[in-house]
Amino acid sequence: MKTKAIRRLAISALFALSSAASAQTYVWDMPNEYPATSVQGEGDRHFAELLKTKSQGDIKIVHHFGASLGFRSKDQLDAVADGAVVIANTFVPPLGGINPIFVLSSLPFLVSNASEAYMLYEVARPYYDKELARYNQKLLYASPWPASGLWGSRTYDKPEAVKGLKMRTYDPNGTLVFKAAGAAPVQLSWADIVPQLTTGGIEGVLTSIESGLSASFNDYAKHFTALNYDTTINMVTMNLDTWNKLPAAGQKAVLDAAKETELFLWGNIDKVIQRNYDTAAKRGVTIAEKVDPAFRRYLQEQAEPVIAAWVKRAGKDGEALIAEYRQRQKVATTVAANGSAN
């Protein structure tokens, strides 16, 4: 079924491209695994409107949310590379088996807020560009998810609070970190969470405030602790062959729309989180926005072996990347501290 869909899209893309050669108009299918109402869906629509305006209507995006074309994020790297689709919005951690650079944003407790997450992305951008070029595509922009925290029956604000906690994690790193912290984590798919919550199989869920609200976790868990475990990202990439065939004006329109969208999404993420907090509060959820620094340091200590293992796997590039990020992080912290003192 998926093979037929890919062939159909490939033929459609070639037809659109050949037609566009004379008319200078382009229509691009854009798959996204997540719903139109998600922060990623909103970003796609923002980009499409900007691109339509900046290209004077010559480049139009056709959205396919909720994996409606049959592509999951792990499929989209090849789909864009082969030209089955011209452009896609992809959640990158599932691509970690291809290159460790793609799991960078999901490393636990490496960043503590959206500003640091963007700093990490800026440092990593050349590495992303290099790897994506190997897969015949160009990185246009990255967009963040709200940071992950813990949904549960209470606030988790000290080491004792997570001791023995039966909780859901979404990747091996999370399982390692919280097991080291004394919890009883289990890696569960999204579809298995609610059944486990309702039967008492788990008490806590590691995910973002937005994701939890979308699945009505507030019906089963009345507390959310903003641990800032990670700030994962999606990337919007486009087929490099299509990019190279665009006229200069078309390339400029794409780059300008991408840059404005990226700045909008990163600049707006704190507002998105606050909007989610307001929604959660209306649903009776208690939000712990500030976590005891001592507790966060404790969790960071449990995460260090995971980060070290990633650096070893990523080699010299990973070592250089983390070193540069931590140097920038240190400078930013010093500047902020001096500003507060003044």
Automatic annotation (TrEMBL):
Keywords associated with the record: Signal
Protein name according to UniProt: TRAP transporter substrate-binding protein
Signal sequence segment: 1-23
Species: Thauera humireducens
Biological processes annotated in GO: transmembrane transport
Entry keyword annotation includes Signal: yes
